Amino acid sequence: MRAVVSSCAGPLCAAARSVIPSIWRGKYFSSGNEPAENNPVTPMLRHLMYKIKSTGPITVAEYMKEVLTNPAKGYYVYRDMLGEKGDFITSPEISQIFGELLGIWFISEWMATGRSVAFQLVELGPGRGTLVGDILRVFSQLGSVLKNCDISIHLVEVSQKLSEIQALTLIEEKVPLEQNAGSPVYMKGVTKSGIPIFWYRDLQDVPKGYSFYLAHEFFDVLPVHKFQKTPQGWREVFVDVDPEVSDKLRFVLAPCATPAAAFIQHDETRDHVEVCPDAGVIIQELSQRIALTGGAALIADYGHDGTKTDTFRGFCGHKLHDVLIAPGTADLTADVDFSYLRRMAQGKVASLGPIKQQTFFKNMGIDVRLKRLHGGRHQMNACQSKTSAFPVAGFSELAWQ
Ligand SMILES: C[S@@+](CC[C@H](N)C(=O)[O-])C[C@H]1O[C@@H](n2cnc3c(N)ncnc32)[C@H](O)[C@@H]1O
């Protein structure tokens, strides 16, 4: 996993919908030949088969978007997939130290940039709300430092199920949660530490103002277009119905150039690439906001710096899962191309990284925190239970008192 402190934007080529070419090469890419019993016909598979039979093969980006966030059947919309009983586990679910050190990082940025009278903490894709809960605990413990600062929390989340879990994790029960499914602000309440908290489906709806933005394992679930270099030029990978096996999908190559190829660099040397226009749009929005009203963004994710080729994969029950089998039952992800994010952020605000998470947390004093939390005897691992009874990392090292 890597982190980048990000920044600004240049104009992004328009992301037009792919033209559906008329001739398709029936070439398999990476989907395995699973036996029929391992290929259950899920409601999402039925939906996709119908869609493809009606209008033709779909891009990998469209496939990913439908499978993960379709409002009726999407993987993320109605289930809690995080944790030991789910499909994958994330760092904040493993240890409170992760969120605590990020909380310290935000406060140190706030101090370094002149202690604004107010700031918004905006998290994209907050999962179970654990990370922001750990950050808020740091804010409470550093109440004397933040006492004159007006803080609000803004969560960007498309999942109904996860937003309910976030509310349970974060809000003060005595203050009624306001809900309005039809409004851009679909929930609002007050956190256990008395801070106003708001939920949105789209970053565009978050009010502009001095803000710290956080995205942890969010960019890797955004839809990617996949391309292969051929003697005829870049050709996009699409998802089609397999004509030889019933209820099965397969990958095919488009017979001619498609619009998303505009996102590939002219001097690209790899023979397979993945591009994520949605990530570019979000980085541009973050950059414009930061340039206009101040703040910073921290992006932490699995990723590379423009070097990897085929990273699209699925996870189910903590195991790798064929991306075309039983769609809607497994998480789909592709590594984040940080070189692309940097390009999209170029010019308006400063951009740092990516650096390895290990380096970032060492710089933030994780070793000291681990010693304090576990008496120097134990290593951090996925089975440790979370506890909040210990002081927050970095306190004595930072000269704030
Ligand atoms: C892999 S989980 C990461 C959760 C959390 N950040 C963590 O580290 O535990 C991805 C999160 O992004 C949300 N999400 C996925 N696509 C989204 C989108 N297009 N807009 C907003 N949230 C999205 C999911 O519902 C989920 O909360």
UniProtKB/TrEMBL annotation:
A Gene Ontology molecular function term of the record: protein-arginine omega-N symmetric methyltransferase activity
EC number: 2.1.1.320
Record localization: Mitochondrion
Methyltransferase keyword on record: yes
Catalysed transformations (reactions): L-arginyl-[protein] + 2 S-adenosyl-L-methionine = N(omega),N(omega)'-dimethyl-L-arginyl-[protein] + 2 S-adenosyl-L-homocysteine + 2 H(+)
Family, per entry: Belongs to the NDUFAF7 family.
Function (record text): Arginine methyltransferase involved in the assembly or stability of mitochondrial NADH:ubiquinone oxidoreductase complex (complex I). Acts by mediating symmetric dimethylation of 'Arg-118' of NDUFS2 after it assembles into the complex I, stabilizing the early intermediate complex.
Protein name (Swiss-Prot/TrEMBL): Protein arginine methyltransferase NDUFAF7
Organism: Daubentonia madagascariensis
Lineage: Eukaryota, Metazoa, Chordata, Craniata, Vertebrata
